[in-house]
Each structure stands twice: as structure tokens, then as C-alpha cells.
Amino acid sequence: MSKTWIVFRRELRSYFATPLAYVFIVIFLVLSAVFTFQVGGLFERGQADLQPFFRWHPWLYLVLIPAISMRLWAEERNSGSIELLMTLPITLWQAVLGKFLAAWVFAGVALALTFPIWITVNYLGSPDNGAIVAGYVGSFLMAGGFLAIGTCLSAATRNQVIAFITAALVGFVFLLAGFPLVLDLVRGVLPQALVDAIASLSFYTHFEAISKGVIDLRDLVYFTALIVFWLTATALVLDMKKAE
Questions:
Q1: Which run of H or E residues covers position 46?
Q2: Which pLDDT belongs to residue 104?
Q3: 138 is in which domain, residue-wise?
């Protein structure tokens, strides 16, 4: 664990050593505010909750999280520094986990900095703060899911642009699978059991449940299993690339 911590600290410092981190945070905060107050009409709704805020998170993450993950391994492979990393006395899993956790914490920092929106809602009314906390937990878990997918696809290529596009496309599939329009289309040609299975694979389905204030064990298991699966795939991809 100490070696994972070393990789984690190294990677997290690298984020804040460049202007990219601050640009990402500013963009995330500005877009969150615009979608909450302007597009979501928080003031006009007359309800003290953060549903307009959380509703747009899947779409924000669909674009912004691949921007974080695309450099994780693609940059290492393109610069040749991955060979140096692999010669260090750490296991492949420790490197994968350390880099992923650093990126996830960075995304968490950006999410935590949206707290003024939470304060605003409490100033305007008496919201269900338990539901808001659940929404933040769900959003953080969903960010981890998007990030795990992006980490794997970053490991598969040297090109950061390709890593970004493929991560966004795969994330879009996982997101779209739970939308009512898609489910209504497949319901006409597939058995209900398969329709339910498709819905259960979607970020949208599980995040929507949590954002309403209900933290179900099934939703936690889903995001945990998703992250573990894609990180395992990342380690396998890197191991195969190392053998080339």
C-alpha cells in the first residue's frame, strides 16, 4: 500500500503542477453553475433541492472525465516514461491503482468545490441535505466509473486524442443504455429480462436512484464492480503491451 501511496502522490502532484488542472476545475465549476441556474432553472422551480445540479453530471463527466483520463497512460507510453515506471520496485497493480486514485481524488476535488451551490440552496430554503449528500456520493462514484473506463482505454493507445474519443464513446454507451427512449426501443424486440439487464448496466439508472436520496447496496456494488473490472482490464492491457 505504501508504494501505491507513492504513485498516488506523484500523480496527484503532477496534476497541480500544470495549468491544465486549474483550467479543468474552472470549466467544471462554470458549467455546473450554468446548467444548474440557467439551464436547470433552479430559482424558477421554487423547490429547495439540487436535482437541476445533479441531472447534468452524467453529461459533464462524459466530456470532462475523458479529458482527465486520456493522459494517464497514453502520455507515459508516448514519452517512453512507462518503461522507467515499470522498472521501479512496484507491481503493475500498484501503479494502476495509484494513478487511478490520484485522478479520482482530483475529480473529487472539483466536485467538492461546487459546495457554494449547496450553500445557496440552504440559504433559499430547507432542502433534504441527506438526499444532497447521497447525490454527491453517487456523482463521485459515477466519476470513478467513467474514469476507470478512460484509464483502460488510455492504456491501450499512445495517442491522447484517441484515448479521449474512445473513452467518451464507451462512456456514452454505458450512459445511454439506461435512458427510457433506448429501453422503449429495445423492449419491442427483446425479452423483458434482457431489457432489465441492459438498464442495469447504465450509469444513468444507478446514478438517478442514488441522486434521489436512496443509497441502495446494489448501486454501490454496481459502481464498485465496474471500477474493479475496468482497472483489471487496464492491468491486463498494460501487461500485454509490456510483452510487445
A1: none
A2: 94
A3: 2-243
Query: CA nearest 145: which of 221, 239, 53, 218?
Result: 221
pLDDT for the residue 138 = 92
CA distance 20 to 242: 29
How many Å from the N-terminal Cα to the C-terminal Cα in the chain? 28
pLDDT for 155? 87
Q: Quote the pLDDT of residue 79.
A: 65
The whole-angstrom separation of Cα 226 and Cα 224 is: 5
Cα 164 from Cα 71, distance rounded (Å): 9
Q: Dump the DSSP string for 105-126.
A: HHHHHHHHTTHHHHHHHHHHS-
Whether residue 100 contacts residue 231, with contact meaning beta carbons closer than 8 Å, is answered with: yes
97 within 8 A of 231, measured Cβ to Cβ:
yes
Can you tell me which residue has the cell 501503479?
A: 95
Helix (H, G, I), strand (E, B) or coil at 206: helix
Count of domains observed in the chain:
1
Mark the ranges of the chain whose per-residue pLDDT is less than 70.
1, 40-48, 77-88, 241-244
| Spatial separation of the C-alpha atoms in residues 4 and 89, rounded to whole Å | 11
Which pTM value belongs to this model? 0.88
What is the pLDDT at residue 225?
Answer: 93
